[in-house]
Amino acid sequence: MALSRQRALDAHLLEPVLRAYGLGYLALTTPRLLGCLPLLLKNDTGYRVKLERLCRILLSGLGLNKFSTFCAVLVGGATWLPLLFFRITSVHSSFRSSLRSVRIVRFVSAFVSAWAAFNLLNRKSRKNDTTITDSARDEDPKGEEDRFNGLKTERLRPELSGRSLDFTLFSLTRAAGVIAAIAWNGWEKRRKSRGRWSRTEELAPRIADAGLFAGSAAVVMWAWFYSPERLPRSYEKWIGEAAQVDDRLIEALRRARRGEFIYGKDTGQAPLLESMCKDYGWPVEWGDPAATVPIPCEMVHMGCGSSCEWHAVSRFMRSFKFALLTNLPLQVLLRVRSKQPVVAINRAIRDATRSSSFLALFISMFYYSVCLARTRLGPKLLSSKLVTPLMWDSGLCVGAGCLMCGWSILAESIPRRQEIALFVAPRAAATVLPRRYDRKSNKAPYI
């Protein structure tokens, strides 16, 4: 009997640690697995390449300095240390536990666990991380330009400022959300008790969640266009796969913003888009900024024709298919143990369809807003003397797409809006904070 109780106690203590490790492992590997799905579904890729990529992703979540270990140490320490402390002090009859002492012990245990977990997370990896090439340009803003020029660069890279930045911002965002919810609930109770609750106040939380996501998405998309080094490599890659846009077109917009791609002048940038014209069968002069002002929208549509409306519909359908292939299997797996399989499958299909529609609407709204700003609506509202075509293509049209695409969150359910908004907000905040610092001086950020 005593042995069975001891085993039950051990299982009870191990369960939260194992669960935390498993959730941390899934949080680390699931986005990478989803990003790997297009490669796994390709028929022109060998099984060996697919297996190596899959094994590399699965092994990436294992190690002392991984997020999964961080979660296990944090939860394990916060669970075991108070129990160990009270078992030791129970031997001494002079120690009297109170509610205050219990809270202090739990706080100290959580603090020590967090300190140990953060040190493990920020521990240096054994892999050589002192150089960077154009094949791994996640922190090198110049690497993108070198890739189009056919060059391969290699230079020293500053130390990471810390691997816990995203986690810290996530916790801060969640804490701010909780505080805001508590304050709003108090305001709501007071207003309703006085009979002054209005329709505007009832809609405010819904608009606030959508506004938070729209603002965060605008920052992330702007960073993806003009400062991709500020985004995590996996995040940037996933956006690129969902956007399905030719890299040469993105590079042309970046060069326009840097003042290298100029309409009406021969600055040596024509070969970039001329090669794209040859690949798609367009007139070569379309790619020459000295001859064609501005870039035709048909180049932005990338083979969908000259109609901006049809391009938006086409983008929606392609993005919906892309998202559904990812969301539907995931939704079914989450409900595989349901006692009512028919109801669970119907709900999985409904949720997957709704989430896929949101993502498809996000992408199509971005592209259509770009077209509206640069050719369809913007030049008609604002004179070309006031806002030139180069001004539209050097940032204004992308800014219009960034501002509009996030409002597609209104297609999602109300609970999901808040969840998605609080997930994207830390990513947006991380884009304005430097991730690397020069080794010679910790005061100067590497941007």
From TrEMBL:
The keyword Membrane applies. The keyword Transmembrane helix applies. This is Integral membrane protein. It comes from Talaromyces atroroseus. InterPro entries: Tmem135 (IPR026749). Keywords: Membrane, Transmembrane, Transmembrane helix. The chain crosses the membrane at residues 20-41, 62-84, 104-121, 357-377, 389-410.
